[in-house]
Structure formats: structure tokens, C-alpha cells
Amino acid sequence: MIIEALIGFTFLAALVVMLAPDEYAGRLAFGLSLLPVVGSLYMWSQFDATGNALLEGGSLAFETQVPWLTAAGYQIQWFVGVDGISLPLIVLATVLSSLAILSAWTPIDSRQSQFFGLMLFMEANLLGVFTALDFFLWFVFWEAVLVPMYFLIAIWGGPRRKYAAIKFFVYTNIASLIMFIGFMALVFNLDVNTFGLPAVAVALRSGGLSGAFGLSPTALKTAAFAAMFLGFAVKVPVVPFHTWLPDAHVEAPTPASVMLAGVLLKMGTYALLRFNFTMLPDVATQYAGVIAIFAVVSVIYGALLALAQQDLKRIVAYSSVSSMGYVILGLVAYTQLGVGGATFQMVAHGLISGLMFMAVGVIYNVTHTRMVGDMSGMADRMPVTVGILVAGAFGYMGLPLMAGFAAEYFIFQGAFASSVIPVAPLFTAVAMFGIVIVAGYLLLAMQRTLFGPFRLETDYEVTRAELHDTLPLMVLLLCTIALGVAPDIFFTMIKEAVTPILAIGGGA
Amino acid sequence: MAAFDYAPAIVLLPFVSFLVSLGAALYGDDVLPKGGALAGIVATAGSLILSLWVFFTVSAGNVYNQTIYTWTTGAGAAGEEALELTFGLLLDPLSSMMLIIVSLVALLVHVFSLGYMNDEGETGLPRYYAGLGLFSASMLGFVVAHNILMAFMFFELVGLCSFLLIGFWFREPGPPSAAKKAFLVTRFGDYFFLVGVVAIFATFGTGRFAGAESFPVLAEEVLAGEVAVNTFGFAPTTWFTVVGLLVLGGVIGKSAQFPLHTWLPDAMEGPTPVSALIHAATMVAAGVYLVARMYGFYAVSPTALAVIALVGGFTALVAATMGVVKREIKQVLAYSTISQYGYMMLALGAGGYVAATFHLLTHAFFKALLFLGAGSVIIAMHHNENMWDMGGLKDRMPVTYWTFLSGSLALAGIIPFAGFWSKDEVLYEALVHGLGTDGGLGTIFLVAYAFGLLAVFFTGFYTFRMVFLTFHGDARTGQARDPEGVGWNVKGPLAVLGVLAAVTGFVNMTPVADLFDLDIEYLHRWLEGPEGVEFMSALSAHHYLELLESDVTGIHAAELDPLIPGGVSLLLALAGVGLAYALYGRGEPEEYTAKLGGVQDLLYNNYYQDEYQVAIAERVVLPLSRAADKFDQSGVDGVVNGVSSVSLFSGSRVRRVQTGLVSNYAALVTLGLTVLLVAFGIYGGWLL
């Protein structure tokens, strides 16, 4: 019941905050958002799931499965539960939502109750995405996440917010449609009468798929895989489906960027893992080389794009493309460290990119510019913020004993000797070169903006950041270090959940 | 052993001082007395005491190789056992010796910083001491690491500290730029290192340095045909060489070897005590130490050894020539550091494990001494570092002069100072192995030896050019005539290191031992390690020699009296010193190197090494990224926007259908129905 309690409470909190007066909305929302944090940490402490949620031999934690309605002979269920893959993402979503709300106190100065209400509404749906195990239910949450994000960008965004919001919405929505068609094509030709994801996964692998549309079962599988991969690749985003991301990030208000990079992108990688790589492992392994090319191109090309940017937020935005490329590489490796590392990277990148966006946001709050050329020597005026930003940047570069290094190292180690990816060592080594480029663009940007003699091209007086601005940064930094020093906080349960996937992917 | 139980505290104590100083830095400059220096001094003194305890415990015949914390476990390949990713300590003769070097120099540098930073009224001291504390902790962690992943992690952390401390004066434009360059160039090397680490785990399933299940031992067994590992389709020798060279990338970066040496001279932008600790005695040593740490792995790959020797010898010579024309005292020392680490690499490549370790030991002391001496001079000169503005400081700062002279004699390799013994052994090893080894490998060793031998002359010259210009003759500026005095906190560390630079060489006087048939090669005996400990036999100096002389590697030593090559190198060093004396030691010195014309420009600009590296960054990588950005905006995003404009356009056209006229709609309905009917008709076969 705790999952229902969490989701229900967060929806309720969203409603309460929507109705609250603007001046209290921020504080109220933050206070209310702490309860889901406590709840998710309680779930972590009581976690007892074994195996993978979708595969035989596993048992879910906090499971609820009740029939909801029957449509066209298919049973739709309220089916939620967590395994070792989803729980870390739930903790990430609650923690990051709370901190993003806190970081919104300063920059959001109009229609606060709506803003904070939408943030909580988004959090509730995110919790749904990561817990739902019935496709219909999951898809409702999946689509519902887009709505608040659309408004967050379109109302509180920058000058080109309309363009960015519509691009974001249309692009990801079309992708969802393609994915939806792909999945439905599978289910309707499958020997099941439910949308329950575990049942679909089992039926797919037991050969219950019949051909359709003139396609053989294998061809149908491949087509469905391609459709779903495309749908999720937009969300991740994988190059070349990434161009909505920088626009959305640049225009979005900082707290929305934090959620977008920190959690929303992980919906894509989470879904790839749950659908493509768990349900259709035979197709994934067959096309592993192609997928690995997507991954490596995302890493290197994304990093090169980041190097060319002059807007701090764009730099961080493009670097996400690069980091998500590592996730794809880890997933397709079908090894324990590869898939586990990819899952770990989802959390690690969520924390670190959240930290980076927030820190850039704090600087923007006082300087009203994000352009690299507009400022220098900010370390002189904002020592604490800059200190944390530097620490976060090194975390992004993969400094050992921070979460990003653990995740990337696991992925590299897992991909290098993968028997699924052709010429795995070469792919891995090329992707690893990303760690040099990321150091290049972050160090260059830091040198130009944070160090050197103080200079600011805007007419604003630089003031010290408030405690509620820097506190979320510190919390994220500490979380990043904690996960880097003791990755087993999450990695033990992640390994438990990914190991069954390896067996079906021929990788174990 | 009790000492080993407390050994983790060697790393943790400086880490605590880091946390203390960091807290103070967040709270304000004057929370702690001396800005956090005392915490650092206490912590590093504690580390030194514990390190000595470990040293004596090791010398009593005990060694330690234990995991203390499991980071995580996980399988990296199908059907393989889970890899154990752990933190643990390997305390053996090599690491316990290095622990003393690092903790001693760290302690002295902390004390010296009282004079260089506190007394000079610097701000931001807690941040400075936090950096020093974190550096000391990371470096000590690197030294005791018992597996290569842990070593890599601390290797990166010392890189971070180097970045932070080089950029300590972040309000000026120079230091942040130098800090960036240092991190980036070493990161480029570390990329290869990390690929190497991943490859080692993927190949051997372990990253341990010592023990029956360690990768050097496994490599040996694979080559002996006793076990099999995944060598990714290559022959084992080829693959091990590839892996060894990958790890070497990190070594070349950190130890500032050609062609990744360019960051070190820039790193002199940092405070001088930092240069002494990080960029002379310890962090730069990390690369060489790593090769020594896993020497068993390199010893079975002749190709890797040849590369190491050649890179080392070449770097030793090239860096020494660049040191000849520099005007600033710290620049001379920076190039000298590059050159001296080249000697260590030369020794490692040419099969001189003991010689390399020996030179690592002596160099740590005499180079830290020279940097601190230069720091003392810089205080005296009110932070003017140009040697042409100095002169005549000998009489005004005698403690600095005499200690600096001790360090200089050691650096130049003049008997009986420390550097003479160690450099002589390096060159001797290269020569005898070059003469004794057949084929191309022997030739390479001889070439590398020739480089190293030639560098001796330049070393003697630039060292004493520096000494004469700084301390001798008449004061050339007002600053030099009236230098600022330095306190006990500067003189104390100088005195300690001055004595060490003079006497450390006595721990391994190989020529004397050979000549009089004495058993006084203490360092050699020390690196043999205690008898009867199982894992130690694979880490001992004689085991490495066995590997080198095995059929796999095929390195052999020629019989050669050590006196002749020793005499030759001493004569060359003296010739260098003599030339320096002739040019700069008498009367009013001139910039004689100006007469070299184009050669001087070439040397002063470091053979334009920086230029081509900057050009790669600015003229290749940046334009590439801009081109990618342009392609992304017009190409990739252009398609996206194109699709949307097509749909907008078609939408606007289709909209015209909605005219609002009922007759139009009726016509369209009729038309549509007709088309459908015809279509169905054709499909059903009723028509046609």
C-alpha cells in the first residue's frame, strides 16, 4: 500500500498547493514534498524484492495487483510494485523533486502556487511511471508527466519558451505514439489477455507471438523493437533525436531543468531497459552493434556539441546527451556491470546533472546571465556556490569517489568484455574518450566564468546566495559522494534485478 | 602487526585535516589559528610517525596485503566470476619507503608554508591547507593501494588537488589557465590508464598488485603456459604489451614525460611549496611509482620496456636542454624535474628497478629541497622569480645558500651527494643492459643511455648556471641587495632536506660496494624484501631480474666495471658545472645563451611543444566542435523543424478545405464517396 500512499499523497499535495496562496506555496510544497522522501527512504530500508520485476523467479516489493477494467478482452490492472531497478529511481525522483522545489523559491516570482503544484503533480506521475507494471497504467503516467512539464516551460520559461515547450511536447508525444503502436502490435499478436508487463514479457519469450501485417513473428518483433527504441530514444535522448533537449533546457526555468535532466530523461532509459532490453533481448542482442554505434555517437558527438556552447545551461544540457550515451552502451552490453552500471548511472547522472543545473541557476539568479563571455571571476563573489559547482563539475568529469565515476567505471568494465557487442573493447575505448572531452569543456567553462579577475557584463549587484539556494546543492553533493564511496547503497539491489536479464540476453 | 592495524590512519589523518580546514574555509578565514596549518602539521606528523612504524615493522620481516573495504562486486563479462572492486593496503618495502618520502616531504612543506603563505599575509589559507591535506591523503592512499583500480582512483584525486592548488590564486588569469592545462593534459594520459585498468580487470579478473592471484603473477603464468586468460584474440605477449602501454599513458601524463610534459612548467604558477610537494617530490613521482609497483607486469614485455626506456632517456635529454635557457628559477627547476623523472623511466625501462627506486628516493629529497630553497629566495626577492634580477644572495641568506648548494650538487650528480649515486646507477644499468642484450632492444637501451649520458652535461650546466646567477656575483637589483629575511619555518625544512640531499645516496653505493667488495647496498637488500613471505617473492628485486633475464624478455647484463661509466658521467657533470662557472660564475654574467640565436628561441619556446598541443586544441578540436554544433542546428534540428514546417504548411493548406460553404462540403462528400466506391470496385473486381 505504500506506493499508493506515496502517489496519492503527492497528488493530494499538488492539489493543496495549487489552492494555497502564492506567498506560502513554495514553503508548503517543500514541506509536503519531504513526506515522499521519507516514504521512499522507508521503502529503501524495507526493500525485500528479489529478481527482476518482469521475469520469472522474481518477487516484487510493495506489490498491489487488482483488476481495474476489461477492454476488448484485455484485462487492465492497477498493478504496481518495485524491484531493484525501479527503487533507486523512486528515491532519486522524490529527493530531486524536493530539492528542485527548494531551489525554485528564489527564481519563481509569479503564480507560485501553480508552479509548485505542477512540480508536485509531475512528481506524482513520475512515481507512477517507475512503479506501474501494467502497460495501460504505465502509459497514463508516462503521458501525464509531459503535461506539467509543458506548462512549466511554457509559462515560466525564457524568451523562446513557447517554441521550446511545443517542440518538447510534440516531439516526445509523437515518439510516444510510435512506441505505443509498437507495443500494441506486439500485445495484439501475443497469446495474452492482459497488459501486465510481466505477463507480456514471459509470453514474448515463450514464443507466443504470431506474425501479423504480413510479417513473420521475428520481423514483427524487430519492427516493434525499432518502434519502441525510437520512442524511448527521443526521451533519453539518443543522437540524432536530441534536438528538443537543449531548447527545452535553455528555456525552462531552473527547477524544471533539474527535473528534466535529473528524472525525465531517465524515463527513457528506464523504459528502454524494461521494454526493449528485457522483453525483446533476442532483437537487442542481434542489433547490439547498431545500438552501440548510437551509444558511442551520443557520447562523443554530445560532448563535442557541449564544447561548442557559450551558454552554461546549454553546456550542461548537451553533456546530458553524452552521459546518457553511456547508459545505452551499458544496457546493450548485457553484463552485470554493464546493465547495472547503466542503471546506476541513471541515478548518478540524475544527482550530478541536477546539481549542475541548480548551481548554474544560482549564478543566474544573481547575475541574470548564463553566457560564458559575460562574466569571469565569480569565485571571488560567490565562494560557496562556486566551490560546490567546481566539486559538481569534477563529479561530472568522473572524479573517483563520486557517483559518476562509479557508474561510468561499471559501464566501461561491463562493456569492455561484453560478448554481445561486436568488437566490444574498441567501442568501449572510443566511448571512454568522452571523459577527456567532458573535462575539456567543463574546465574551459569554469576557467572563463568562475576564475580570473571578477567581471560581470550585466547591471546587477552580485549578492551572496541564500541558504535555501545553496542547501540543495550541498545535499546533492553529499549524496553524490555517498554513492561514490558506497555504491552498494543501490548497487546491490540493482545487481539483483539486472542479473535475470543477462541470462535471457545470452550475456551471462 | 599493530603497525599495520593503524596504517589506514596514515591516509585518514591528513584527510581529517582536510575536513577541518574545509570547515574553516566555509566559515571564514580566521577560525583556525594559522589558517589550518597546525591541523595539517599535526596530521602529516602523525602520518610520518605511523609510516616510520610501518617501515620498521616491514624491516622486521613483516608485510601486509589485505583488503579493508569492498567497494562493490559485479561480473564484467558473461559467465565470469564477479570482479572484486576493493580498497586495501599493500605494505611492503617499496610502499613503506614511499610512505616515508611522502609524509616527510608533506610535513616539511606544511611547516615551510607557514613562512611562505602565512607570514606573507595570504588570504584563503584554510582553502590552501584543505588542498594540501586532501593531497597528502590522496597521495598516501595511492602509495598504499593494493590494486590498480584503487591506485587509479587516488591517482585522479591527486590530479584534482593539483588542479586546486595550482589554481590557488584564482583571481589572477595565469593560475586558473595553468590549472586547467595540468588537469587536461594529465587527464588525456589518464584516459589511456583507465582503458588499461578496465583491460586488466577484463583480462585477469583482478587488479591486485601482489599475491598468487595478482595480475603480474597471472601474466607470468600465462606466458609460461600454465593458465589461460581472455586476451581478446591477441597473442598474450601482444595483449600484455598493449595493456602495459595503455597504463603507461597515465604514467607519461602524471610523471610529465614527453610528449605530455607540457603541463608541468605551467604548473609553476601555483605557490612554491605546492610545487615542491606536488610537482617535484610526490605527485609527479606517482607515475614512476606505478611502473615500479607493477614492475612484474612490465618485466615480461620487452616492447613496453623499450618504450619506457626510450621515452625516459629522450625526456631526460630534451628537458635538460630546455632548462639551460630559462630565466626564472622555478622554470629551471620544473624542466629539471621532467628531466630527472626521465632518468627514472630510463632505469625502469632498462631493467634497473632498484636504480629507479633509488633515484626516486634521492630526487624526492633534493628536488623538494631545491624548490623550497627557491621559495626562500622568492620570499627574499619579494616574489620576483627572475634569476637575472638576483645575484649575490650567498652572503645575505647563508642557510638557504648552503642547503641549496647541497641540493644542486645532488642534482648535478657530484660525488658524494645523493644524486651522484642514484644517477650513476641509473646510467650504469642502462649501459650494461644495453651492452648485454641482443638485437634491437639492446640498441634501444644504448640509445637511451646515450641520451641520458648527454643530459648529465646539461644538468650540470643548468644547475650551476642557476646557482651562480642566483647566489654568486653582485646583486643586480635593489631587491637582491636588500632581501627580506626568512624565519625558522623556512630554514628548518631546508636544513633537514639539505642534510638528506647530502647523505641519502649512501644507502646504495654500488660502485663502492663493488670496488671494495662490501655488502653495503642497503636499498637493494631492502627491495629484496623479507624472506619466507609468499607474495613477497614475486615483488622482490631478484624476481624482477629473473623475469628480465627469462626467455620471454631476454635482457642480460654485460660484465662491466662500474668505475669507468661512473667516471665518465662524473666528468661530464663536472664539465657542465665548469662551463657554468666559466660563463656565469665570474664577475658580471651575461646572457650567453642569446648567442645561440635561433637555437635559444627554440629552447626557450620548448621546441614549440606547447604550440602544437594548443593548436590541436584550438585549431582542430574547437573548430570540429563548432562544425558539429552548426551541423546539429541546421542539419539535425533542421530536419526536425523541416518536418514541423511541412506539417504546418500542409495544415494551412488543408485548412482551406474548411470554407464554411455547405455546397462545397456537399461537393466534397460526393467526390469522396465516388472515389471510395471506385476504389472498392477495383479492389473487389466489380469494375474492370
From TrEMBL, chain A:
Query: In which domain of life is the source organism classified?
Result: Archaea
The protein's name in its UniProt record = Proton-translocating NADH-quinone oxidoreductase subunit M
The residues forming the signal peptide are none
| Homology family | Belongs to the complex I subunit 4 family.
Example of a GO MF term: NADH dehydrogenase (ubiquinone) activity
Query: Gene Ontology terms, cellular component aspect?
Result: membrane
- Name the Gene Ontology biological process terms: ATP synthesis coupled electron transport; electron transport coupled proton transport
Keyword list (alphabetical) reads: Membrane, Transmembrane, Transmembrane helix
Q: One Pfam family this chain carries?
A: Proton_antipo_M
Q: How does it sit in the membrane?
A: Multi-pass membrane protein
Q: Where are the transmembrane segments?
A: 85-108, 139-156, 168-189, 222-244, 256-275, 287-309, 315-334, 346-366, 386-411, 423-444, 471-491
- Please tell me whether the keyword Phosphoprotein is annotated for this protein: no
Domain annotation NADH:quinone oxidoreductase/Mrp antiporter transmembrane: ranges: 132-426
Organism per entry: Candidatus Halobonum tyrrellensis G22
Q: Where in or outside the cell is it found?
A: Membrane
Q: Which InterPro entries match?
A: NADH_Q_OxRdtase_chainM/4, NADH_UbQ_OxRdtase, ND/Mrp_TM
From TrEMBL, chain B:
Does the record carry Membrane as a key word?
yes
How is the protein disposed in the membrane? Multi-pass membrane protein
Matching Gene3D superfamilies, A to Z?
1.20.5.2700
What InterPro entries does this protein's entry cite? NADHpl_OxRdtase_5_subgr, ND/Mrp_TM, NU5C-like, Proton_antipo_N
Domain called NADH:quinone oxidoreductase/Mrp antiporter transmembrane: residue spans? 145-431
Transmembrane residues, as ranges? Answer: 6-28, 35-56, 94-116, 128-145, 151-170, 191-211, 231-253, 274-292, 304-325, 332-354, 360-380, 401-421, 441-464, 485-507, 563-584, 665-686
A Pfam family cross-referenced in the UniProt record is Proton_antipo_N
- Major location (coarse): membrane
- Which domain of life does the protein's organism represent? Archaea
GO terms (molecular function) for this protein are:
NADH dehydrogenase (ubiquinone) activity; NADH dehydrogenase activity
- Where does the protein end up? Membrane
Keyword Membrane found: yes
Single Gene Ontology BP term?
ATP synthesis coupled electron transport
Alphabetic keyword roster: Membrane, Transmembrane, Transmembrane helix
Give Gene Ontology CC terms. membrane
* NCBIfam families for the chain: NDH_I_L, PRK06590.1
Q: What is this protein called?
A: Proton-translocating NADH-quinone oxidoreductase subunit L
Q: What is the lineage of its organism?
A: Archaea, Methanobacteriati, Methanobacteriota, Stenosarchaea group, Halobacteria
